[in-house]
Design a protein that fits this description.
By secondary structure, the protein is of the alpha+beta class. It folds into two domains: 131 residues, MutM-like, N-terminal (N-terminal domain of MutM-like DNA repair proteins), CATH 3.20.190.10; 127 residues, Helicase, Ruva Protein, domain 3. Helix content is 27%, strand content 21%. It has seven helices and eleven strands. The strands form three sheets. Strands 2-9-5-4-3 form a five-stranded mixed beta sheet. It has a four-stranded antiparallel beta sheet with strand order 1-7-8-6, covered by helices on one side. Strand 4 and strand 5 form a beta hairpin. Helix 4 packs across helix 7. The protein is globular. The chain starts with a helix and ends in a 10-residue tail after the last strand. The chain binds a DNA duplex through loops.
Length: 283
DNA sequence: CATATGTCCTGAGAGC
DNA sequence: TGCTCTCAGGACATAT
């Protein structure tokens, strides 16, 4: 499930082969699948982008953005199972969109591949794009937010801190996997109401967020048991081997080695934590 | 307004 | 063996 580290890995992976290139074609590919959500339709997408240069490739929260010299921007949301690929898809039938570039280099296309098809590809105008990135729909980026950002955001909701960390309007980029990892490093119980966090506790979450996300980026993200996430060369990420608690119910806590990691459900999502290291009341 | 739940989708695994 | 059922969760829509 692509969260900030996986999407950052996609961006860094395609950037050297996409930035500065001229778009020669955009087409729908794959076969038996229901078409994924495209906005606007493929025709106007192609009309507005073919012949344009890709001015920049960057990440906004959990989205990949390819900005064109016209000011329009492709915004790709991988959601659960989407990937950006330079070649060699996990399977050919779930390829969804291909961007082909003019000229001949090592890679001349980039693909969006998506097994479940929940992802979206949109071509936004400069105005629409500005609304997305600065319209209050997304909180500060989890990788660059300040400690004060996080304290203020957490103070604004009574929801459990784990659930609050998943709200992209509060903090952008954290998903279900990294929320558990971050809270374990920060030694915070996931059910604590966010507004009840003390300032030092919120600061621990801030520091843990940076630590965990940067480490996960270094390892090129997490490839879970279902093998869905792959980097742009269709290789596994490596951070799953460093997971402390996620999907490790009944295994010993890597910190205290005494308690077993337990799994609870919050807002219909799995949360993993150590009941000893992440006690609600600390002494 | 804040919070909670339902929906989309496919493949893996369980159970009979 | 082969069927049906449940589960996984990011973001958005709808309900309370």
């Amino acid at each position: 499930m692509p969260e900030l580290p996986e999407v950052e890995t996609m961006v860094r992976g395609i950037r050297p082969f996409v930035e500065g290139r001229t778009i020669a074609a955009v087409r729908v590919c794959g076969c038996r699948c229901r078409p994924i959500t495209l906005f606007p339709g493929l025709k106007s997408m192609a009309r507005r982008s073919v012949g344009r240069h890709v001015a920049a490739v960057r990440r906004i929260a959990k989205r990949v953005v390819m900005e064109l010299d016209s000011g329009d921007a492709f915004v790709i949301e991988p959601r659960m199972t989407g990937l950006m690929l330079l070649h060699d898809p996990p399977d050919p039938e779930h390829l969804r969109i291909e961007w082909r570039f003019a000229g001949r280099r090592e890679f001349n296309s980039v693909w969006f591949w998506d097994r479940r098809g929940l992802g979206t590809v949109r071509l936004l105008t400069a105005v629409e794009f500005a609304e997305l990135s600065g319209g209050g729909l997304l909180g500060p980026d989890a990788l660059t937010m300040t400690a004060n950002d996080l304290r203020e955001r957490m103070a604004a909701t009574r929801r459990p801190v784990k659930v609050a960390l998943l709200d992209q309007r509060l903090v952008a980029g954290i998903g279900n996997l990294y929320a558990s990892e971050i809270l374990h490093v920060a030694r915070i119980h996931p059910a604590v109401p966010a507004a009840r966090l003390t300032a030092p506790q919120a600061d621990r979450i801030h520091a843990a967020t940076r630590l965990v996300l940067e480490d996960a980026i270094r390892h090129e993200g997490s490839t879970l048991g279902d093998g869905t996430y792959r980097n742009v060369l269709n290789q596994n990420g490596g951070y799953q081997n460093s997971h402390r608690v996620y999907d490790r119910a009944d295994e010993p806590c890597p910190t205290c080695r005494r308690a077993k990691v337990i799994r609870i459900v919050q807002a219909q999502r799995s949360t993993f934590f150590c009941p000893v290291c992440q006690r609600k009341r600390q002494h």
